[in-house]
Amino acid sequence: MTVPVGTSHHVRSCRFRQSKTRLSACFTGLGFAVFQCVEIMRKTFLAQVLLDKAGRPLSIPCVSRGRSEMQISWKYKCIVALIILVPSLPVSAGLITPSSATVAAGTLTGGNAALIIDGSVPPEGQYWQTDTAYWSGTSVILQVDLGARYKLEDVLVSVDNNDAYLVQYSIDGLSFSNLFSIAVSDGEIPVSPGGMDTMSSDSANPEYVPSIDFSAVDTRYLRISATGGDNYYSVGEIQAFGAPSSIPEPTALLLFGSALLLLPWARRLYN
Asked: In what residue span(s) does the F5/8 type C domain sit (predicted)?
């Protein structure tokens, strides 16, 4: 059988166009999935720029091989995927506003847990039962929920001066690790007349106590409990300083990896 002249070339050309069509469909699907992630990545700049007022993905005009097409080119799709799915840049640390404070164990003698996150740090030397959460014995545990996952860099605490305390942290609120301990000798308020003492892990803070300094950790929950002293304990305030953790969603990571894997193949077909 005689094969018409140009048929072989025509077949290869058809296969090439079919491959391009499949690839375009693949990236169209990837683009749709990327835009589905926009709600998750709402805080990123492009997540808002790439939506119209009705919340629909924008169609970006582009020119491909001399033809005007109202579609997103494969290069643009890859760029969008890379930019949106890459973790956001670090944000400078600031005072974190907790969502709640509770008594995780034991019973307070007076005051309430909300007082330790009300933003009011008791004056140093103030009476230990004024505007504080106080108790006797070492069974009480106070827990603070920061409301989200943060990169915790510093902590400021106000506690009764002649006691020892333990501060712990956790990501899930179930498994806690030690962050730092406060010794009876820490701080600057003498045993007599005593009172509340403010301490900070921030070396730039006048209340800095080197022994409670720590390396930054990812956390959402903080706990403080008494470990020794005169058996009468008090916490006036606990303040956390840090920035939101940039943890990519599993779906975002999957899409990001897919975009990288498809990029070399796309370049071979289109170049």
From this structure: 84-243
Cα angle, residue 112 at apex, residues 106 and 113 outer, rounded to 5°: 75
CB burial readout 195-206, b (16+ within 10 A) else e? bbbbbbbbeeee
The residues spanned by each domain of the chain are 10-89+248-270, 94-244
149 and 247 in contact (C-beta within 8 Å)?
yes
Contacts of 54 (CB under 8 A, 6+ apart): none
Within 10 Å of residue 192's Cβ, how many Cβ atoms? Answer: 8
Residues 31, 77 contacting (CB under 8 angstroms): yes
| pLDDT tens digits, one per residue of 76-98 | 555 555 555 555 455 667 999 99
Any idea how long the chain is? 271
What sign does the CA torsion over 182, 184, 190, 196 have? positive
**Tokens in use for 213?**
């300094």
Q: Which tokens hold the place of 114?
A: 């909300």
Q: Is the peptide bond before 193 cis (omega within 30 degrees of 0)?
A: yes
Tens digits of residue pLDDT in 96-150: 999 999 999 999 999 999 999 999 999 999 999 999 999 999 999 999 999 999 9
Buried b (16+ CB within 10 A) or exposed e, 4-19: eeeeeeeeeeeeeeee
For residue 168, what are the β-bridge partners? 178, 223
Residues 144 and 116: their CA atoms lie apart, in Å, by 9
pTM, full prediction: 0.62
Half-sphere exposure of 31 (CA within 13 A, CB side): 23
How far are the Cα atoms of 76, 91, 148, 227 from residue 88, in angstroms, in the given order?
A: 20, 9, 16, 40
